UniProtKB/TrEMBL annotation:
Gene3D superfamilies with a match to the protein in the record: GntR ligand-binding domain-like, Winged helix-like DNA-binding domain superfamily/Winged helix DNA-binding domain
GO MF term set: DNA binding; DNA-binding transcription factor activity
Record-annotated HTH gntR-type domain positions: 12-79
Keyword DNA-binding part of the UniProt annotation: yes
Keywords: DNA-binding, Transcription, Transcription regulation
Organism in which the protein naturally occurs: Thermoleptolyngbya sichuanensis A183
Top-level taxon of the source organism: Bacteria
Name used for this protein in its record: GntR family transcriptional regulator
UniProt xrefs under PROSITE patterns: HTH_GNTR (PS50949)
Length: 237
């Protein structure tokens, strides 16, 4: 879905609809990291006045999805190596806890859904070698479902904030190097350890599941950090 194809529905305020349209375009990559945002152009494309555009941009700045450049213009945020490290540190803290609780509180339906997501990503990875929004969506849904399976709604809310920034980061990196996202083999291992811990409820098996998510996130952190460093230095992937 591209920005030009989005229409502003009048059932909500113009500000809300404009904000949602711009946010979706940023997180999908239609508005690319580093891209300059011009009020008049955005207003024309969304067929609204500049006032809701301006209000939406202020909210996107508060969300840290839009930043001001040195000339005072606004651009889609680009994340730094430090951002990568800090985001993954947050994920490590939250998702290890999510896996532990998922082993204890997941429903049978949630466990089956996790397995289905793994199977879908395996099928998709066999047919696609390039950047795939579908693959990114499966990755997000897998990790979010683990959080939901913990039974802790506040944990899910906190992770959602992190996942927004991760979506921006993935747009920034995977288009250039789709290999930075490795979910097929690592997600299968995470699922199997969660399933084992969920069935046995033994401390050793739950610890193994937590170790699996930690290994996955540390490996992902290293890949993404390297890719962002390459981007900053203009190194080919």
């Amino acid at each position: 879905m591209t920005l030009s194809s989005l229409s502003v529905q009048r059932s909500k305020s113009l500000y809300e609809q404009t904000y949602e349209a711009l946010r979706a375009s940023i997180l999908s990559g239609d508005l690319a990291p580093g891209q300059r945002l011009v009020e008049t152009q955005l207003a024309e494309r969304l067929q609204v006045s500049r006032t809701p555009i301006r209000e939406a941009m202020r909210q996107l700045q508060r969300d840290t999805l839009v930043t001001a450049d040195s000339s005072g213009g606004l651009r889609v945020a680009s994340l730094s190596v430090e951002d990568v490290i800090q985001l993954y540190d947050c994920r490590l803290a939250l998702e290890q806890f999510a896996v532990q609780r998922a082993c204890q509180h997941a429903t049978p339906e949630q466990v089956r859904s996790l397995e289905q997501l793994v199977a879908q990503s395996e099928t998709l990875s066999k047919s696609q070698t390039e950047y795939s929004p579908e693959m990114l969506d499966l990755d997000y849904r897998f990790h979010r479902l683990i959080a939901e399976s913990s039974g802790n709604r506040w944990l899910v809310s906190l992770l959602d904030q992190v996942f927004d920034k991760m979506a921006l980061l993935r747009v920034q990196t995977t288009r250039r190097n789709p290999r930075v996202l490795e979910i097929r083999q690592e997600h299968r291992q995470i699922f199997e350890t969660i399933q084992t811990g969920w069935r046995s409820r033994s401390e050793a098996d739950i610890t193994a599941a937590v170790a699996a998510i930690r290994t996955h996130l540390i490996a992902s952190q290293a890949r993404v950090t390297q890719e962002v460093e390459n981007l900053q230095h203009g190194v080919d992937g």
